[in-house]
Amino acid sequence: MRVSKAGVVGAGTMGAAIAEVLALNGIPVVLKDVDRARVDAGLAKVRGYVDELVAFHEQRAPKEIERIEQLGVHLSVDQQAAVRAKLAPKFTRARGDEVVGRVTGTTDFADFAGADLVVEAVFERTEVKRNVLEALDTVLPDYAVIGSNTSSLSITRLAKGLRHARQTLVTHFFNPPTTLPLVEVAAGVDTREDVVTDTVDFLQACGTTGTPSCRSACGRRPPSS
Ligand SMILES: NC(=O)c1ccc[n+]([C@@H]2O[C@H](COP(=O)([O-])OP(=O)(O)OC[C@H]3O[C@@H](n4cnc5c(N)ncnc54)[C@H](O)[C@@H]3O)[C@@H](O)[C@H]2O)c1
To answer: Which residue did the predictor score with more confidence, 179 or 81?
Structure first.
């Protein structure tokens, strides 16, 4: 699956972090919430998550030097330089700025037009998620895939009767997605097999910078009675 543009609905804890993961992988992301204040809060979360990643990388070498010296080993200037070279930040401030710049906020579903993949991460309530999926169904191109970050709801029920029902599936990111790169992928009864395979392939190819690539556990989630 080629994702040139992605969307995330819900700029809360998970939505902002999922947007960050997609943007880390070079994908422009539209992040939606219900009003401008929540959108801005979500964008600030993305900035905060990225800042943490930059700080983690910047601190690796100084922390390692400190750790070694606390063991009573005095490192020469050359040895310290060697540690700094080995642990040079792979994720720099400039890269962080690029990642943040890939995420744009909106309150309008129309801005998902042309998206290849949209993940919803709104409240865990059937009627809220169903309204979101219906709105996405009208605005997304035929080929688009819709992922739901639901923890427990039936994807078969959520997607029933939608134009995109065969391209809708669970993409359940674990929290926090950048340090816990596991995504549970679960198909509904109507989900096409190739959509499941393509989504798993896409997620497994996603990296989270400094941590292993995403791992996907895959299965069919039966409709709950
Ligand atoms: N928090 C976790 O640890 C975690 C882990 C895995 C999965 N999940 C799942 O992820 C989903 C989101 O959880 P969360 O913790 O991020 O919730 P959250 O409350 O932090 O964020 C939900 C966001 O969705 C927004 N929203 C609601 N309706 C909307 C709409 N129509 N359009 C756009 N935005 C809308 C809300 O304003 C809010 O900002 C849930 O399904 C939850 O079960 C959560």
So the answer is: 81
Mutation test residue for ligand 1: of 8, 20, 31, 33, the one with most atoms within 8 Å of CB = 33
What's at 178, amino acid-wise? Answer: T
Domain 108-210: give its CATH superfamily.
NAD(P)-binding Rossmann-like Domain (3.40.50.720)
- As a three-state string, the secondary structure of 56-107 is HHHHHHHHHHHHHHHCCCCCCHHHHHHHHHHCCCCCCHHHHHHHHHCEEEEC
Residue ranges covered by each domain of the chain: 20-107, 108-210
Q: 67 C-alpha vs ligand 1 centroid, how far in Å?
A: 39
pLDDT at 224 over 60: no
Catalytic: 172? yes
Mean pLDDT of the chain: 92
* DSSP states along 100-149: HHTEEEES-GGGGTT-SEEEE---S-HHHHHHHHHHHHHHS-TT-EEEE-
This prediction has a pTM of 0.91
